[in-house]
Every structure is written in C-alpha cells, then in structure tokens.
Request: fold
Amino acid sequence: MTAQTLERLPLPLLRSGKVREVYEVDAGRLLLVASDRVSAFDVVMRERVPYKGAVLTQLTAWWLRQLGGLVPHHMLAADADAIVGELPALEPHRAALAGRAMLCTRTEVFPVECVVRGYLSGSAWKEYRHRGTLAGEPLPAGLRESDRFDPPRFSPATKAETGHDENIPVAEVTRRLGADVASALERLSRLVYTRGRDLAGARGIIIADTKFEFGRDRAGVIRLIDEVLTPDSSRFWAADRYTPGGPQPSFDKQPLRDYLDVERRAGRWNGDAPPPTLPASVIEATSARYLEAFARLTGAPLPLTDL
Reply:
C-alpha cells in the first residue's frame, strides 16, 4: 500500500473516518484498516504521511500486548498473515493489509472519550486559564501550563461527529451511562494510563494525556478498543526536555501543526477546509516524528521493508 492510496477490500464497509476504514467481517468481528491520512485542527489534509497508518496500528498492537491480562481488549490479530489465514478472501490484498490492519472483536461503543490527564495541557489548560476549571469543576489556583497532576485526572469528553470534543464532568457520564459503567470506564482508563505512563517513562517519554475508547461485546464484557497510546490519541513529551510553565515539544504531528499555525497567522489559511498544500519537508518531518515515537516506545524501529 502506498502513502497515497488505500485499497477497498471485499468486505462490507461500515464507516470511513478521518484515518480508518472499518469493515464488517461477521456478527462478532470487525477489520480496522488505518490509512496514512492526517488531520489537524479537525481538517483532513490532502497529502498523506508515509507510514502513519502502520505506526498507529502496530503501536496499538504493541501496547495491547504489554497490557496483557490487565484489561480486556478487542485485538484478535494485527499480522497480515494471521488475518489472511482467518479471512482467505483477503489474500489478494495481503500487501495492502501489511502493518495497517487489525482484526478485532466487535463491540457496542460507549459514546464517550475516556481522557486521562497527567499534566495540564491542551484544552484543559485553555479552560483552566480562562475559568480556573476543568469540565466546569474547580482546579487548585496557581497552576502553570504543563504542570503535573498528582494523581492524574479522569476527564471524559463527548464524542463529537464534527468539530471538537467537549470536556464533561464525570457526573455527566454517570447520568448518560449509569453509575456502574461510569465507574468501570474510569477504573479501566486509570489502569491503562498508569501502566502506559510507567512503561513510557522508563523509555524517557512522558504521556501527558491520552484518550481511550471502550465498548461492550456480545458477552457483556467491557473492552478497550480503537487505538491505544499512539501519537494521535496521546500527547507524548520528551522527559529530558520537560519544563513546566509553557508548551512542551511533542512526538506527534507537531511539525504539521506548526506549519498550519504559520499559514493561519499569515492569513493564507482560514482554518477550515480546504487545507493548504503541505510542503514535502513538513510531510517528511511529520512522518519522522511518528516513526521516532514508535521506535522509542517499543525499543525497535518499525520494519519498513514489510510495508
């Protein structure tokens, strides 16, 4: 699969998102295929970022293996050979699936983003700076941007179909989903964040915040789903460069965001679609950030020759 195309597979296409195509395998399984599409400020760019889809899929698979028996999850296979073995009709598409596809247990998705914040950054910092709150709940006075939360904050958000997700109080999750589900989602989110924080910290990376999604399978088990602790779902900082009191350099699509910020401030882009054309240097720098995040977290480079 090239950085520019994503093959249509001989399976029913359930939905196509900003990054992934979701295919129906049967009543109990889905196939998720991540493209190299990239979005920033809720706008999908025209250009693709090489290897991004493989990084998201294989880093998620790596994390789910590390989580072991800590939490139930949806991954059944993330290896193209194993997937084709389960679904022989996909044999002609083996190359397209390599690195990018994950066979998963199908679940009914809970309509909330389970955000865990270890540090005050992003939308949380913006709200705190203006109102001293997070999702309307007061925070201690005198906090600085990028200050550490101890303990981390469970800060759920709505799953917006368009535009930005909105931070909501835990009480709102309880109202929408019931006390038992709300409690389970918070407990599981904290377990995954803590394990991820500790593993990443040993590799010199701070997980400043991250968002998880969960769903319930046909047996009633709540499972961790979608991507897990990737540069798209998390804010990764270099521990040796962490200095609270301002924004931190991150291992994600920061080169892309920086370029778009310049275009917007210069009046060459209004922040909406269509996006500006991306220079090759920005695409290459963004791809390098994703690959670096994968290598630093897993301890090995992504095997590009297999993609």
In short: The radius of gyration is 19 Å. Residues 40 and 161 are 15 Å apart (CA to CA). Residues 1-5 have pLDDT under 50 and may be disordered. The helical segments are 52-67, 80-86, 94-97, 122-131, 170-177, 179-201, 254-265, 280-298.
